[in-house]
Amino acid sequence: MSQNNNQTKPDRQVWTGIKRGQSWHPVEWVAEKLIFLVSLTAIVMVFLIFAFVTREAVPLLLGQINSAATQTVIPLADMDKTPPEVLQAYLELTPEQFASMDRDTKLLLMQTKLDAAKEAPDDKDARINTTEWRYLFLPYKWTGYEQPSFIWQPVSTIKKYNIVPLIVGSIKATVVALLFAVPLALAAAIYVSQLARPKFKEVIKPAIELLSGVPSVVVGFFALIVIATVLQKTFGYESRLNAFVAGIGLGFAIIPVVFSIAEDALTSVPRSFTQAALALGASRWQAAWQVVLPAAIPGVFAAIVLGFGRAMGETMIVLLASGNASIMSWNLFDSARTITATIAAEMGEVVAGGDHYRILFLIGSLLFVVTFLSNMAAQMVMERLKKRLEGKA
Amino acid sequence: MPEISLPTTMLTDVNAAPAARGVPLITIENLALYYGATKALKNISLTLRERVVTAFIGPSGCGKSTLLRCLNRMNDLIDNVRIEGSVKIGGHDIYGADVDVIELRKRVGMVFQKSNPFPKSIFENVAYGLRLHGMRDKSSLESSVEESLRGAALWDEVKDRLHASALGLSGGQQQRLCIARAIAIKPEIILMDEPASALDPIATARVEELILELKENFTIVIVTHNMQQAARISDQTAFFYLGELVEYDATTKIFTNPARKQTEDYVTGRFG
To answer: Least CB-CB distance to A281: which of B106, B168, B178?
Structure first.
């Protein structure tokens, strides 16, 4: 100290070192910017996926798609009288395609339309544009049906696109999966984090988490071959593959997800809470159930929401085990078809740009919106729960 | 449910005349405790008296907290702990095969170093132990909670916000809440593990006052790093070093005229 005091001048100069830019770490700078860029890309990707999926469904939303089996035809002779925009829409072409085609090609397309019109079915529903909202969501009394019904029959003379049976199918499978998996996963999480001996915990925790590494097609196959048979023998219902079987299969897929997050949440509750409860004369079970679980509620809730999202979005298991019949029924033991399975099964067969194609993208974006909204709602509920626990609300 | 039988003096109303003060209550005989292969407590023999404050002092790692936690069997929760010797409360071995640990912990309460109120309301914190031991009636719960909060000198500060979260209280208030929670179930012995070490001097003074008041009704064993605190509040002091009981005597004697050189060095601040 005394030495420094004697040499005031050099000491002062050292202070110039606080100026910016004296020490520059280019590698750190680059690394930091790269990480920032990567995280930004993730956000952008989410929006891009949503934008592109929705874009394919936009013509449907704008009412530009007409799926009627019988449509007003324009005779070949009227070609030159028809305004180009009308002709373009009539031939279902994009402006670019329309511009690139010569007159003969267009005539050929018009002839195809005329031929198709001749073969159009003689049906009271043939002139209906089945992609309108009311046919997508409301029951309608189709020809040959006794009463108004929700029908998904995208491949038929009259294409029926009612998506309610698919939504119901998704809900049924998801609810069964959650009812089956959440209690099991939470019980396992409480046991492993609070009650199990450390040595046992070391074995059982990785074992349960290993379940999440099983490919869903394998779980689906297992559900299709084993679970379906066992459940049918046990409960004696009629359709071997149904929403119940699919839900149980889905449950196996989401148990590790719910378990893992819930176990982390429970373990992160301070040990001092447990100790305080035990010192008051609580049993280990009472401490876990009455003190630790309430303190971990935000995390446990997050685990359940994540499980919900996974169950909603899971495709392979339901495709294999649900029976894939788009029946409008709340009965768990009827075959069902989910939104995801519908997209997976039908996307390969559709005409790109056609009405069926657009509908599939519409239900895809619907799935996206539902998951997004449920996650957002869950986030808000979690914030409130956290605040209440911390005594700020 | 097997219960430990305790002397009748302990089961009488805590507000009765303190006739039995100073009667031997806890007898520790040749207690040794191992963490795996490490011997953390070495053959400790010690008799603690009823309704006096006994302080355990000693440098960090000397085993005083471990010994404290032997008295309500909180060490049971740690793996690889092995205990030899005996701890008798009211003549009954608390490590005996017939002991109900829950009943034991109900009678031997504990306050921890770091205040650890549950993330529940103030009321629920105090009521938790009462509910645990079967009190359901709302009005008796309310009166017991009030009595305990008054006993912990916290009532006036929190009576208007009993249903607010306990985590909104200051550190000192939280620690007094933990004391209220401990005394709510009317234990006979209260173990305190450095209860004031995380508190500022004013909050510490309040907790110390409280301990002196609680002494009227409870037997208190307190672990502390603060020599002045031990001198201020305790009647008996035990000094530990490296897992051994070095000296155990009246507090005034330990601090003014200790028998052992080691004790004198420690209490005068020459080591530790």
So the answer is: B106
